[in-house]
Each structure stands twice: as C-alpha cells, then as structure tokens.
Request: fold
Amino acid sequence: MARTIGSHGPTTLNAIHEAALQLIFEHGYEAMSLRDLAGRVGIRVGSLYNHIETKQDLLFGLLCSHMEALLAALDEAMAAVEAKGAKARLHAFVRFHVSYHITRKREVFISTSELRSLDTPQYDIIVRMRRRYEDHLIAILQQGVGEGDFSIQDQDIPAAAYNLLGLLTSSLTWFHPGGRMSVEDLIALDTRMVLGAVA
Amino acid sequence: MARTIGSHGPTTLNAIHEAALQLIFEHGYEAMSLRDLAGRVGIRVGSLYNHIETKQDLLFGLLCSHMEALLAALDEAMAAVEAKGAKARLHAFVRFHVSYHITRKREVFISTSELRSLDTPQYDIIVRMRRRYEDHLIAILQQGVGEGDFSIQDQDIPAAAYNLLGLLTSSLTWFHPGGRMSVEDLIALDTRMVLGAVA
Amino acid sequence: MARTIGSHGPTTLNAIHEAALQLIFEHGYEAMSLRDLAGRVGIRVGSLYNHIETKQDLLFGLLCSHMEALLAALDEAMAAVEAKGAKARLHAFVRFHVSYHITRKREVFISTSELRSLDTPQYDIIVRMRRRYEDHLIAILQQGVGEGDFSIQDQDIPAAAYNLLGLLTSSLTWFHPGGRMSVEDLIALDTRMVLGAVA
Amino acid sequence: MARTIGSHGPTTLNAIHEAALQLIFEHGYEAMSLRDLAGRVGIRVGSLYNHIETKQDLLFGLLCSHMEALLAALDEAMAAVEAKGAKARLHAFVRFHVSYHITRKREVFISTSELRSLDTPQYDIIVRMRRRYEDHLIAILQQGVGEGDFSIQDQDIPAAAYNLLGLLTSSLTWFHPGGRMSVEDLIALDTRMVLGAVA
DNA sequence: TATGAATGAGTGTTCATTCAT
DNA sequence: TATGAATGAACACTCATTCAT
Reply:
C-alpha cells in the first residue's frame, strides 16, 4: 500500500513542522529522533525524506520561517506608530513582542536554545534575522534618547536593548495563560518595567 | 595521609568536570559524547566510569555543585546588607548576581538550557535550588514594596522578580569581558535599569 | 503508425541504458542508485519503472544486448575468413576483438566486473553467451594446432585461449585513444604478441 | 557480558580481515554489509569499530597489506636472478607471479575490481604500489630488448608489459587447483606463451 | 507516461555502558 | 585506576520498489 488516502504533500509537511516544533520544545533538537517525529506524524521514518532534506534542514526551516513571520508581523504592527514618539513606539513594541510571542512559546524557546545546533551558513542567517529584530528596539531607544525621553548613555543603548529583550523574553517563560494574570496584565507589567528601566 | 602520591583521583574528576562544562557549553549535553569527553581529559572512555556514575549523573553533579556554590556565595554576599533597606539590598543583589555569574558563563548557560536533560528526581532538586535563589530577590522586592520604595502590585512581585532575573541574565549573554564596557560599567547599567524598572 | 508523435518511450529507454552504462562503469552496479540514474536521465525515480522491470533487469538487459551485438558482429566479421587458414583467422579475430571493444570500454568493463551482481538464471545466460565467444577463439586455435601452425598441447588449448583473451582485454584497459599509439598500432602489437604466444 | 572469553584484539582483527576478504570476493565491497561481516566474525556490528576506522578503511587496509606483501615477496624472489639475463629474469617473474597469486585469488580479484571503491588519497596509494610492480616487468623487457633477446619496439615496451600481466592474471581467474592441470603445468604454459609473445 | 508520496528493510556509524584484564 | 574490547540499541539517512493521481 503506497499511500494512505487523505495524506497530501503540504498537509504532511505542515504536520511534520508542527510535530517537530513540539518534540524539539519538549526534548531538544538533539534528543528528538526522526523515528519519534515520523511516529507522531503517522508515517515511516523514510517518508520524512520526501519532505525534508536533513534533520538540520528541518530545524533551519522552523527557525527561518518563524523569524520571517516575526519580522513581517513586527513591521506590520509598528507601521501604525512609525511617526510617533519613542514612548509610544516602545509601548507598541512591548505590546507586539509579548502578544506575538505569547502564543508561540515553543518557537521562542527553540529559537534561542537550539541555534547552536545549526551549522555555520544557516546559523549566520538566523542570527542576522534576529539582529534585524533587535535593531528595531535599538532604533526606538536611540530616538527616545534623542528626544530626551529615555536616559541611557549613547554607548549603552544596544546593551540596554538586549537587557530589555531579556526581560521581555523571560516573561514568556514563566507566564502561563489561564492563570491569575491575563495577557493584558502581563503587557501592562512589562510595559511599566521597560519604561521604568529606561526612564 | 589520606591520599597516596600518584593517585590522581580528585584531579581526574576535576578535569572531567572542567572538560564536561566546556563541552556541554559548546555543543550541548546531548551532543557531547563521552568519547569526546574522555579524549579531552586524556583517558579512554571506559575509564570515565571510575569517576562518574552515568552521563546524566555527571550533568547533575555539575548543576548541583554550581547551584550550591551559588547559594552559598549569595548568602555570604548578602549577609553584609541583611539589615539594610530594600534599595541597598537590591543594589547588592545586582552586584552579586552580575559579578558572580560573569566569570561562570558556561555554568549559567547550561543551568538554564540543559535542565530538561535531567530526569525527574534530579530535575526537581535543581529547580528547588533555583527557586531558593529567586526567592531571595522576591523577598527584597517585597521589602521594597512594603517600605514604599518600589511600586509593584503585590501579586506581581514574583513576576517582576523573574523579569528582573531575565534582564540580569541576558546581560551575561551579550557581555564580552575585555570590550569597551567594564564589569563595573555593566553593573552600573544593570543597577540603573533594575532600580528604574521597579521604581 | 506504430508510434504516436510525442511518445518518447524508446528514446527514454535509450537514455536510461546510456546513463546506466556510464554510472555502472563509474561507480559500479551496487553503488549506482536509481535516483542517480533517474536524475541523469531527467526524470523522477518512480518513472524509471515505466521502462524497466527492476534494477537487476536493467543490468541484465545491458549485458545481454551487449553480448548479442558482440556475437552478431563477430559472426559478420569472421564470415569473410571462414574458409581461410588459422593464422589468417587469428589475425582477423584479434583485429575484430580490439576494434570492436575499443569503442565500448564501458561495456567490456561491466561485462566482467558486474556479472556477479546477476542472480542465477540471468547470470547463466550471460556466461553461456560469453562461452560462445571464447569458443570461437578456441576453434581457431584447434585449427591452427591441427594445421601445425600453432604449437600448443591439445589439452591446453582452452587455457591458451583464455590467456589470449586476457592479453587482448587488458589492452582495452590501458589503451587511451588519442595518445601516441593509434588503434592500428595497438592491433599490430596485439597481433604480434598473440601470434608469438601460440607459435 | 562484556567480552567473550578467548577473543583477543589481534585475533579479532585478523578474523575481520579474513572474513572481509571472503565476503568482498564473493559479493563485492559495496554488497558486503558490515552486519554480514560482523556475523561471520562472531561479534556484533558495533564491535567492528573497535578494530576498524570505517568500511573504506578496511578495504584500504586489505589492498594495502596485500600490495606490501606482494612487493616484498617480489623483491625477495627476484633477488636471486638479479644479475642474470632478461630471459632468466622473465622466467623467474612468471613463476613468481603465478605461484604467488595462485594462492591469493581473492586478493587478486579485489585488488583490481574494488579499487574504484577507494577515495582519492587511498586510491592513489594503491595505484602507485601497483605501478611499482608493473615497473619491474617493464625493466625486464627493456633489458631483454637491449640484449636483443626480445623484439618489441622501444615505445611499446610498457604496453607489452601490461599485456603480459593481463595474460598472466587471466590465468589466475580460470585456473582451478586440483584440476587436470597442476600449478607447474600452468607456469610452464604461461612461460611459453609469455616468452613467445615477446620473442 | 510522469510524478510525488509512501513503504520497510537496510545502510554505515555512534552511543552509553560493562567488565575481564 | 586505566584499558581495550565487547554489547545492543539507537542514530540519521538511503535504498529499490509501489501506486494513486
């Protein structure tokens, strides 16, 4: 029996991506075996290779498409406040960062913890995309410093931006939706802390 | 005479720990093979088992001794400011956190990224130790809120503490000693941002 | 009208045979994957099976059609000297063997080195065809011995024939067309050596 | 149970070599699976890697040690006739070639048919060794031509040498010890043909 | 006739671990 | 305490082959 009825190409690839995301999040890239992955998708291990090049390529595809979607969503979200002051833009950035990532905790996690499993050409590509994201926040801080709203020394601006991203990303780790705190509460807390940190 | 001359037991174990720290930091626990580890130590793989129980046990030992040393150092560092106000204690905490970890970046990294490679009983032990560390910061924030120095809502105090730890830990990631910024500069920046975030 | 315009069947099959010949010559039958083969032909691997039965069948087809063509060409070439003396016929055989095979080095190579990859019924068929070729030379030697032109002991005649074929076939291996030596030079050398060996 | 009593390192390696020789001879290098090999040796497949680097390395080791032994034996066998005339030396060469190889048919076979399975650095090494062997015969022919015993054109000497090796090596293929023909008979026939071919 | 997706057996190789020496 | 050789399970990946479309 060659093909199960109802299994089509794109669907299968999507299922592979979804299952890989989950397994890598749970056990890590190295600890995820392609047998587990295939099993979760409902195909045999050899069939995976009709859809992916290699295991590493699968990881790269995951990270890459996450970063692409993230950057596109960022641009869209920030377009509305492009002409505004730094404070308003920082508000928008925090709101975007938290609300976008809160539904993508697995992607966030593997984007940071599994980068090292990529080899050089692909590693560099993802790092470069991440830098574009960071640069967005850096630009906001620079604007705010220029406008006198934020008090950071010029040479510390990138450092401060990384720190803020660390703060925000940590939120995504400990926050559990459905708990006492709503996402709006989280955004409020993070916004207050971020604005305070650069005040 | 506890140790016969020529017995390198503790020395070998130390070498194993140091090499494991480096290899896990570089490639991750799963990707570190005991052959690599033995090779770096200068013994054969079978000989490792004269010093360790299992691979997982080695990881646990690393994390455990790191956490024990961390907690002990924290207690010692904070003893001097125990009776002081929250601001002074937060100052001290930031200084301690940064200066202690800055020379232990590998331990910091694997403490967060390789926790998942531990199985339940050992996983829980490390998590509990980490919680003791976090609780120290939570207590400081509670004191500060009580004294009116910090403005966080009561129910957000743990969340704020985790955020601050995220901020501080992110510092350790991007900071490169020997660059434009000194450790004192880093502490100054982090202190300002942390105090601002809870002000 | 036997073939509809646009039907590339025979063309595709020819391309498969040519590509297989080249790949088996380069890497060996076992090392040639049907994916490589399909890729070189410009189709997908599944499509191969519209033209071949199995991989082994493909090999058999290659060897078989080579041997059939060889035997036919031999008969044709030797018809002209059928009635002549053994020396003339040996001359003609050497000339035929060298000139026919020199443009078919790949076929020669795989005919000897990949025979073992055939399973029994097909293996036997090829071996039988090869024997017919060898028998032709044996008959010439027998004639020559009978006529007193060649001095080989009767019971050694097949052995001598195999040796001569070894000598001739080795020529095809080291000879590189376009070098110092022309094909006529090669035939001359081989003829002299072969005739000398049986003199 | 870690080790079967009575299985020691060098013994195991020898067993691996012997079994590999047989299996490669029977099925070819590509078609020999390491599982088959291990099974024939009586160990598990993973254990092979305590003795070999890779499968290719095993093949190289086989070919290399065969060629080394061959060259050493050649030097020893030809030492006695070093100062003699070309005819005597050619006699000795034929005798050596046949008698040495006749007990090593498997090595002869894989030395020619599995060379292509080696990658470049190792391939070159074996080819270079083989050339040293061929050069020995070429030198004898040159001497004979110089002494007026052999009648080959100067520029054809290497070609003639390769042809003779082809003749001799073909003998090893079809000869079956224990048949009508003794090894001495074979040597006699080959000697007569070889000397005739260059006369 | 070509294709993409599937299969299951198989590949060489690495793994953590054991243990007699 | 160190070693070399063993184990068996696992690894990522490839194979020839099938077949609905």
User: Anything to note?
Assistant: The first helix of chain B runs from residue 9 to 27.
